[in-house]
Amino acid sequence: MANYELNDPATVAETIDGEAVVINLERGVYFSIRGIGLGIWTDVLAGASVGDIITDLCTRHPADAARIPSDVSAFIDRLMEEGLIRSTNHTASSSACIAQSTFDSRYDIPSLEKYTDMEALLLLDPIHDTDDSGWPNRP
Amino acid sequence: MTHRSILPPSQAAAEFAERVLAIAAEAARRAHATRWIALGELTAVLNFTSEDLHRLFAPSFARTAMPQAAPAMSVALWEPRPDIPAIPSLPWPVEAYRACGEIAGYSDGRYYMRLDVPMDALTVLDIETGRAAYLNRSPRALPTYEWAGPLRWLVQRLAIEHDMVFAHAAAVARLGRAAVIAGPRGAGKSTTTLACYSAGFDYLGDDRCLLSGSPRRRVFSVYSTAKVFAGDANRFAIADLNRVAIQPQRDDDGKILIPLDLIAPELVVGEAEIGCILIPKRGNSARSGFRRGEPAEAVRLLIAEIVGQSPVTAARSLTLATRICRGLPIFVLDAGTDLKDLSRAVDRALEAS
């Protein structure tokens, strides 16, 4: 199965106190990732394949094993749609990439929380006209 | 200065920047006023050739610093006039403008350039030498909020080179320990700050402050003015507020500017250790309180404007803000309408930190 990596420099990310803050700079959107989603996010960035992440999650949460493959795939698809990760040919020794502690919590559907309050700052009216000195005409 | 993020500049960027900086040096030689300011532990010198820019910006830089032989930044501020050469035509295409005027290909290396279209201002900084230019074509049209936070782009760009975050936050302090107040516009930063100032807290800023995480977590004041809606000014028990208030020429957001150093200069301080971060949420009840907040929300709020307005420094700002917030007490401040009780809640939050 595919491997992914952070879609930098368009996207930047940090983790603090059990929550990832992820920002797509081109679209002006913040995201928050917690719980199981944070574990998947951490493992994806560490180079784990989707297959290995699913296998590990199913081992840790056997009661939810039936839904885990589709949940993880949907989450990865969402990360791709939002421009937060991109596929890569790089592969790593997968088992070493799984972050043990982040999967110890109760299983919940991995999700992205989206904040769009920064969009207005980024999505300004494009500049069309300039004067003779190249200076943009003021709106 | 550190050179961590410096990349080889493009030839066009270097040529344009050097020509503008040469004109800036000429403008600085004609300066009618000079002001030395502290930016954290750095010192910068502002050479005002424009009397209008001096009149509008100087009140917000009331805290002066001692002159130094080698300031971290030396800024010439001028407006077009016959005895100063005109700057060359802008060399970049309209497609190069990023959010808020940062210019792709001209802002990513040794030189940092930004054309703030609404403010009609060009900013150029040579990160390696600290030489800087601020050319404003129509200073008299600047809105009040620009007077309250002048040269933001230069401060922000310089700060990140020295591992500081120019945060979108207010800050007040007691006994050298500060509550940094983070929130979007309208969240209550200024109200909380002025409520605390009127209760005798030290004042560091009502909208923007410099944060440093090393070696200790500290907050530094940059601007000494506060903004408040004209209709709200009488809510605060601050003697002389209306006497010293600067009324806007062009009333964009309805706020007046208060030079707090003219009221109680001893309360306008330069720095404090960060005790906690508060995230104000407006409530309808009179009483105020606080509860545990999320560190990630604090990080988002501190850097929201930086990230939106300067993609060049976004990754570094996020990393620094995360480092500063990690392990700090973060509280949601449920801000009530009784301003005395609001300041008491800030006091209690600091005591609990």
Low-confidence spans of chain A: pLDDT under 50, at least 5 residues?
Answer: none
What's the shape of chain B?
A: globular
Shape field of chain A: elongated
Structural class of chain B, please? Answer: alpha+beta
Beta-strand residue percentage of chain A: 15-25%
Number of helices of chain B: 9
Radius of gyration of chain A: 19 Å
How do the SSEs of chain A run, as a string of H and E? Answer: EEEEHHHEHEH
Oligomer: heterodimer
Number of E-state strands of chain B: 17
Number of helices of chain A: 5
Which regions of chain B are unreliable across 5 or more consecutive residues at pLDDT < 50? 1-7
Rg over C-alpha atoms of chain B, rounded to the nearest angstrom: 20 Å
Biggest pleated-sheet summary of chain B = 9 strands, mixed
Amino- and carboxy-terminal Cα gap of chain A: 50 Å
Helix content of chain A: 25-40%
How many structural domains does the protein architecture of chain B include? Answer: 2
Classify the helix fraction of chain B into a percent range: 25-40%
Major protein interface: A-B, 34 and 34 residues
Can you count the beta strands of chain A? 6
**N/C terminus separation of chain B:** 34 Å
Describe the structure.
The complex is a heterodimer of chains A (139) and B (353). With 139 residues, chain A is α+β, with helices and mostly antiparallel strands. Chain A has helices at residues 35-46, 50-60, 68-81, 94-97, 119-122; strands at residues 3-6, 11-16, 19-24, 29-34, 85-88, 113-115. In chain A, the strands form 2 sheets. In chain A, strands 2-3-4-6 form a 4-stranded antiparallel beta sheet. A two-stranded antiparallel sheet of chain A has the order 1-5. In chain A, a hairpin with a 4-residue loop joins strand 3 and strand 4. The longest helix of chain A is centred in the middle third of the chain and has 14 residues, at 68-81. Chain A is elongated and about 70 Å long. Chain B has 2 domains: 11-162, no CATH class; 165-351, Rossmann fold. Chain B has 353 residues and is α+β, with helices and mostly antiparallel strands. Chain B has 9 helices and 17 strands. In chain B, helix 5 crosses helix 9 and helix 7 runs antiparallel to helix 8. At the A-B interface, strand 2 and strand 3 of A face helix 7 and helix 8 of B.
